[in-house]
């Protein structure tokens, strides 16, 4: 169910629980400010989620409140994941859903890294 990206951060969300170690994940990369792990329901051969460790609901929230160090670390982590998984070899897609109309389902900023196959059109009609 899509969420309101302007709502306050919910520390009980699934990604917050993963960061705290309450739920398992298949980690691809962990840095000081970011965590990347395989999606539990992959939509492509390569499907990794990259999340900041801070309490940010969306891109808007993150770019307004995160430190320069957090922003730099997160953006670099996304690129590093693409290289580590081999997604960069043939091309890949980054996707971050924001808010209800964007289809955001978890109230924690995350970027999907998709690759390993042709990914089709930008938007489904």
UniProtKB/TrEMBL annotation:
Motif segment (Histidine triad motif): 108-112
One of the Pfam families matching this protein, by short name: HIT
Gene Ontology molecular-function annotations: catalytic activity
All residue ranges annotated as the HIT domain in the record: 14-124
Family annotation (InterPro entries): Histidine_triad_CS, Histidine_triad_HIT, HIT-like, HIT-like_sf
Active site location: 110 (tele-amp-histidine intermediate)
Coiled coil: none
Name of this protein: Histidine triad nucleotide-binding protein
């Amino acid at each position: 169910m899509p969420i309101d990206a302007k709502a306050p951060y919910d520390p009980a969300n699934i990604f917050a629980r993963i960061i705290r170690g309450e739920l398992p994940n298949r980690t691809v990369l962990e840095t000081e400010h970011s965590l990347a792990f395989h999606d539990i329901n992959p939509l492509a051969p390569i499907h990794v989620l990259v999340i900041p460790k801070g309490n940010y609901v969306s891109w808007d929230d993150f770019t307004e409140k995160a430190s320069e160090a957090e922003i730099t670390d997160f953006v670099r982590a996304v690129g590093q994941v693409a290289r580590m998984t081999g997604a960069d070899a043939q091309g890949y897609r980054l996707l971050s859903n924001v808010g209800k109309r964007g289809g955001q389902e978890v109230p924690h900023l995350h970027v999907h890294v998709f690759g390993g196959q042709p990914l089709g059109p930008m938007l489904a009609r």
